[in-house]
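Lab notebook: predicted structure, single chain.

Context: the supervisor wants predicted structures on file for every construct in the current expression panel, including those that have not yet been purified. This is the next one on the list. No modifications to the sequence; it matches the entry in the shared construct table.
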Amino acid sequence: MSATTTEPPASLAAGAPAPTTEEAALRIRRAVVDMAAGRQGAHVGGSLSCADVLAVLYFGVLDLPGDSFVLSKGHAAPALYAALAARGLLDEAELAGYASPGSRLFGHPSRGLPGVEFSTGSLGHGLALGCGLALAGQLREESARERVFVLMGDGELQEGSVWESLMFAGHRRLSRLTAVIDRNGLQQTAGTEGSLSLEPLGDRLRSFGWEVRETDGHDHGPLRAALAAPSESGRPVAVIARTVKGRGVPFLEGRVSSHYATLNPALHRRALAALRAAGQVAR
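Prediction complete. Output recorded below exactly as produced.
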């Protein structure tokens, strides 16, 4: 769905009302929590932190099937699967089998799944893939409106291949490319700034030739404005989305331990209760 249309996404079932981005984000979070309660657990913290970004993209910005999306932080696959199901690209019942034997919903997304163009999860590769898509679009004048969005983790920025891609995109002025950085400040075992400082991140990205937009990654209005607007400078766009790891579940928020977790029945109930309360407040 493009940023200017009020029509429901084409892939939704005929006659089904399109959820608002807030409703979609809540559905994504509930599904993530359910997946984290399975035997295999899930990368729950980073999936919850990017739920709003995915909801706004899939229900407010992406013009499918023309636009492309790459989940570079592939460990947030539960959030992507939930977004694809909410959009109608996956059967929602399939989410219950996440990471189970015989399921195609792996811990990282695999190419061939509806809505997934590349297998990702080996961090540092997604932006390079996005550069390739954007360069191909730049070379095809007839596809001038197609855009490429890449969602990255902030800990992922420690990979050297990311900065090679940033240089390449800036040099080639890939204005169709938007890199969204889920800036939750935490990685697998520590905070990003204590591991390898990224700040001043905006200035660093600008120095590589990018147009930079910084926004609250949980406030849908400003987030949609940052994601939807085309490049004003003719350069690639970097959206730094300031987020909270584990967002929406208080006992997971801002905790390194939320990176990967298996929720026992009691914690599962607590998490769902928190999300129900958040949904009631939103209404």
